[in-house]
Amino acid sequence: xxxxxxxxxxxxxxxxxxxxxxxxxxxxxxxxxxxxxxxxxxxxxxxxxxxxxxxxxxxxxxxxxxxxxxxxxxxxxxxxxxxxxxxxxxxxxxxxxxxxxxxxxxxxxxxxxxxxxxxxxxxxxxxxxxxxxxxxxxxxxxxxxxx
Amino acid sequence: xxxxxxxxxxxxxxxxxxxxxxxxxxxxxxxxxxxxxxxxxxxxxxxxxxxxxxxxxxxxxxxxxxxxxxxxxxxxxxxxxxxxxxxxxxxxxxxxxxxxxxxxxxxxxxxxxxxxxxxxxxxxxxxxxxxxxxxxxxxxxxxxxxx
Amino acid sequence: xxxxxxxxxxxxxxxxxxxxxxxxxxxxxxxxxxxxxxxxxxxxxxxxxxxxxxxxxxxxxxxxxxxxxxxxx
Amino acid sequence: xxxxxxxxxxxxxxxxxxxxxxxxxxxxxxxxxxxxxxxxxxxxxxxxxxxxxxxxxxxxxxxxxxxxxxxxx
Lengths: 147, 147, 73, 73
Prior knowledge:
Chain A is of the alpha+beta class. Chain A is built from three helices and seven strands; from the N terminus they run βαββαββαββ.
């Protein structure tokens, strides 16, 4: 299951929980990715909308792909406001062998950026401004204008 | 600096320390790799010898390479015995942007396996058995037999 | 009636329209200038499954979602 | 005298030998059957710097290290 939390993530707690979960599963490798809000463009933070049903389905497809390689993926993401220098995203891949984990985390994070139904806003003066210039059209975009 | 610890690593503590260190450095991405001893071949654990001077020098070269990309690498490794289902290795890359971190962790871990001066032994019945079949000749091996 | 919902930054309340298939939905949305400007950029889901074709029949109670450009992480 | 040390699983005490360069060291080590069997597989460091050539002069007090195949992690 995708884990969603309001506000910034307690990364150490989530990492600890996942690591401890993994210890008796006989995985040899755990690779994790943490995304932290950078202080740039004079923002106070970022804010996120998440559409859970399609996010979960997208994630389930990745979990099946991981399973076929003997691996497991976990992810957690923020909903709402995340201040500068706190974290909004953590993902981890567990696998018996390191190559699988190193390759999967890379592919997973890139596809996450391109296709996970999450919308990002800059927070400035308490207002949310859609980060359109950093956003990506999902696969299949535009069909409603294709008549 | 390379962090070396006797016995298995307290992964949550090390991760927490590194993560907290990173928060005000304005990195956007942290990618970490954890290696855990698998229960296989009827071993009780693994054991490691480390030659610190050459390990540190190898690591310093990687740190310079990371620095040139605006990134920082950290690593910790065990010395001596590490029981099954505990961890002997953690490395992390911190960088402003995710691509640098995802690519560096992969290259770093692969070169670590090939060239870091660390020797691995299986622990069976309390005895250390050199894991020669899983070991790799370092770059430049064999010159003393080349006359 | 089919429910059309607008996710993320589109910031519009759901619409309820008569439509026998996704083509009908497309025609009606193209007629609204506020919505039309989003259509090139939006992916589409029917009952929370992403679709890549307009040849999809719809029935009463179905839900069509518009997903504008994303950026998680 | 040059100190020759054997790292990791070679499990041998350091040797102290007369050598003007790394070639001299190679010759002496090849003469010891116990050591010779490791030579194909070992990398070599002089004063903790890895080297890739035997054309390296040595002086009194220098240290030569033999590094057998590695496997960290």
